[in-house]
């Protein structure tokens, strides 16, 4: 009888993980359920066997694309089948980058672009704070941000591990309000002017207004917050309104030529300057002042960015073929409205040949001839709205899209008065002088704490004697100039403690004298010295009662009290004569064997010693 022996087969090894696409190193474990079986594996594509491959002894680290083949062996058993697992190690897609980078602040609108260094990768993003997925918006063009926003984005590509999620935060800011002044033109009409501080900027635009060059505006000036309105024009021009679009007093005046504005006696500038609204001169802006104010610190084509947008101006595509009420589009960062669009604005310069000098300039005034410069673009056009864009027209040109904006140049300011001494603490009447470096200025001052003005205070004519604690305020003014700032000086006049009285007041005396010191200032502390030094708060003895003077002495005394000036020093000289002493004495022979005399002395009339012994001899 033939018996067939059945030989069992070793269980196939299990590779974990069982293959796939991974980013970075993968840790791989191989197990076999047949107890005692030896596992051998390969990573080079060859079949493992008892004579080929590596004995598995622990986790395998794979960092490159690999196919792992494994088999298990055991004596007395058939070799296992071969297990196989393919591992694709994929580099992750590069994380997206942001332009501009995170942290950028903006005022109006910020275009943001995303990019990925991994060619062919798609970028997905969110702007609501949620984590992006492949179901989120796919980036295809600039993201226009108009409010504070955090963009989160990641990049993905088939066959690669998606990038990590990155984010960028952008903050919308509100520029601080600049100082301004509001002037009363009469009839309830006002004019608001914004103060523009001196500074330097790059004027012009490459390919459009060249060459780009540095310009310094050396002095502060005021410019209209809006274009001059129809209401403002009518207030000064006897109710006349030349505008084509008579839509209301708060619409820009138009159909005014440069000649209408600047005519010597009848022009708008002559009229407004004759009203003396405040010391200084109204005029048209220079082209440099206009561009400096329009840019408001920006370097982009428009003050809101590099793309034309009807959100910020009235132009040919949104104006409805008419002007619009001033201030109905967002202002530039310095609070000026309609610097782009609505109406062109006349400047004081001439175009010349249309080119700038390439040299840095300070307060340039343009060419001396040519057409007259207009800036800012007007409602019918689709261009000429950039901060640097310019055009030229004859000074007599009248158009229903030509208006203007005022500049106010304040008169020089009177120098602030100088008060001498400029405050302090004094122990007696102080003589105060006030001077002003502006020749011909009138100085007025107060001593009651009120602010001096042309109608309040005393006119300074000479030294002021101040005997009581006072605050002197002074300002200076002169016709045609801006009043000075107010100078102030606090003078503290301390009352002096009454000088102490020494009784007796010194002299020559026989024997000991009792001396008293008094001050008529209640609460004063008296200090004195008898060694010739000067008494003070930190030197000398405090007086508590009568002083007994036995020898010739000079007493110096001062009185002190908190909140008052120290007294003058009182001095008293005391000369003390010692009394003449007479003596009775008796002479007796010296001790036996001594060739000497000795005796006892007795004071008769009260000397300092009442008796003693004298010797004559050795």
Task: Explain what the structure shows.
This protein is mainly β. It is flat. Helix content is 5%, strand content 37%. Mean pLDDT is 91; it is low at 594-618. It starts with 13 loop residues before the first strand and ends with a strand. It has four helices and 47 strands.
Short characterization:
The protein has 618 residues and is mostly beta strands.
Taken from the alpha-carbon principal axes, the silhouette is flat
Rg: 51 Å
Number of helices: 4
State the share of residues found in helices, binned by percent: under 10%
N- to C-terminal distance: 168 Å
- Helix/strand/pairing category: mainly beta
Give the rounded overall mean pLDDT.
Answer: 91
β-sheet strand percentage: 35-45%
Widest sheet: strand order?
Answer: 2-8-7-4-5
**Total beta-strand segments:** 47
Largest sheet: 5 strands, mixed
Low-confidence stretches: 594-618
Break the fold down into its secondary structure elements and pairings.
Elements: E1 14-16, E2 20-22, E3 26-31, E4 38-42, E5 54-55, E6 60-62, E7 66-73, E8 83-89, E9 97-99, E10 105-106, E11 110-115, E12 122-126, E13 137-138, E14 143-145, E15 149-156, E16 166-172, E17 180-186, E18 189-196, E19 199-205, E20 209-217, E21 221-224, H1 230-236, H2 258-262, H3 268-274, E22 280-283, H4 287-295, E23 344-350, E24 361-362, E25 372-375, E26 390-393, E27 402-403, E28 407-410, E29 418-420, E30 424-426, E31 430-435, E32 442-446, E33 458-459, E34 464-466, E35 470-477, E36 487-493, E37 501-503, E38 507-510, E39 513-518, E40 525-529, E41 541-542, E42 547-549, E43 553-560, E44 570-577, E45 583-589, E46 597-603, E47 611-616
Parallel strand pairs: 2-8, 10-16, 20-24, 23-27, 30-36, 38-44
Antiparallel strand pairs: 1-3, 3-6, 4-5, 4-7, 7-8, 9-11, 11-14, 12-13, 12-15, 15-16, 17-18, 18-21, 19-20, 21-28, 22-28, 23-25, 25-26, 29-31, 31-34, 32-33, 32-35, 35-36, 37-39, 39-42, 40-41, 40-43, 43-44, 45-46, 46-47
């Amino acid at each position: 009888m033939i018996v067939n022996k059945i030989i069992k087969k070793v269980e196939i090894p299990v590779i974990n993980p069982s293959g796939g696409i991974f980013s970075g190193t993968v840790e791989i474990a191989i197990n076999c359920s047949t107890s005692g079986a030896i596992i051998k594996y390969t990573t080079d594509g060859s079949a493992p066997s008892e004579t080929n491959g590596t004995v598995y002894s622990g986790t395998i680290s794979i960092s490159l694309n690999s196919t792992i083949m494994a088999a298990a062996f055991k004596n007395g058993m058939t070799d296992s089948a071969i297990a196989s697992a393919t591992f694709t190690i994929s580099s992750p897609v590069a994380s997206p980058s942001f332009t501009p980078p995170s942290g950028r602040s903006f005022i109006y609108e910020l275009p943001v672009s995303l990019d990925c260094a991994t060619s062919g990768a798609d970028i997905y993003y969110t702007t609501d704070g949620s984590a992006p997925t492949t179901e989120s918006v796919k980036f295809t063009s600039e993201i226009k941000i108009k409010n504070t926003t955090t963009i989160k984005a990641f990049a993905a590509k088939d066959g690669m591990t998606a990038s990590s999620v990155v984010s960028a935060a952008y903050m919308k800011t509100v520029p601080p309000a600049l100082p301004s002044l509001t002037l009363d033109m009469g009839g309830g009409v006002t004019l608001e002017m914004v103060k523009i501080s001196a500074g330097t900027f790059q004027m012009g635009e490459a390919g459009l207004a060249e060459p780009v060059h540095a310009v310094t505006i050396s002095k502060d000036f005021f410019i209209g917050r809006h274009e001059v309105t129809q209401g403002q024009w009518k207030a000064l021009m006897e109710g006349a309104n030349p505008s084509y679009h008579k839509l209301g007093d708060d619409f820009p005046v138009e159909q005014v030529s440069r000649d209408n504005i600047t005519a010597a006696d009848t022009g708008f500038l002559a009229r407004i300057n004759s009203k003396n609204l405040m010391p200084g001169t109204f005029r048209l802006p220079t082209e440099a002042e206009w561009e400096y104010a329009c840019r408001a610190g920006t370097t982009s084509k428009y003050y809101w960015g590099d793309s034309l947008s009807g959100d910020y101006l009235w132009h040919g595509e949104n104006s409805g073929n008419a002007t619009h009420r001033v201030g109905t589009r967002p202002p530039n960062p310095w609070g000026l409205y309609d610097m782009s669009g609505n109406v062109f604005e006349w400047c004081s310069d001439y175009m010349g040949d249309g080119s700038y000098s390439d040299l840095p300039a300070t307060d340039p005034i343009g060419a001396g001839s040519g057409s007259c410069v207009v800036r800012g673009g007007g409602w019918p056009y689709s261009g000429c709205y950039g901060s640097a864009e310019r055009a030229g027209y004859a000074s007599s040109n009248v158009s229903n899209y030509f208006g203007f904006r005022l500049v106010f140049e304040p008169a020089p300011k009177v120098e602030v008065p100088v008060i001498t001494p400029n405050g302090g603490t004094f122990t007696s009447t102080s003589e105060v002088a006030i001077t002003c470096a502006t020749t011909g200025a009138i100085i007025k001052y107060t001593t009651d704490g009120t602010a001096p003005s042309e109608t309040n205070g005393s006119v300074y004519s000479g030294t002021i004697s101040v005997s009581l604690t006072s605050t002197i305020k002074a300002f200076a003014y002169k016709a045609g100039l801006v009043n000075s700032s107010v100078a102030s000086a606090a003078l503290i006049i301390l009352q002096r403690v009454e000088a102490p009285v020494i009784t007796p007041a010194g002299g020559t005396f026989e024997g000991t004298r009792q001396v008293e010191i008094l001050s008529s200032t209640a609460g004063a502390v008296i200090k004195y010295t008898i060694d010739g030094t000067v008494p003070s708060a930190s030197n000398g003895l405090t007086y508590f009662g009568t002083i007994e003077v036995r020898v010739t002495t000079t007493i110096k005394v001062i009185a002190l009290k908190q909140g008052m000036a120290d007294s003058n020093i009182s001095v008293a000289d005391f000369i003390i004569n010692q009394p003449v002493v007479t003596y009775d004495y008796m002479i007796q022979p010296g001790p036996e064997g001594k060739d000497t005399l000795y005796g006892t002395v007795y004071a008769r009339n009260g000397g300092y010693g009442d008796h003693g012994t004298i010797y004559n001899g050795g």
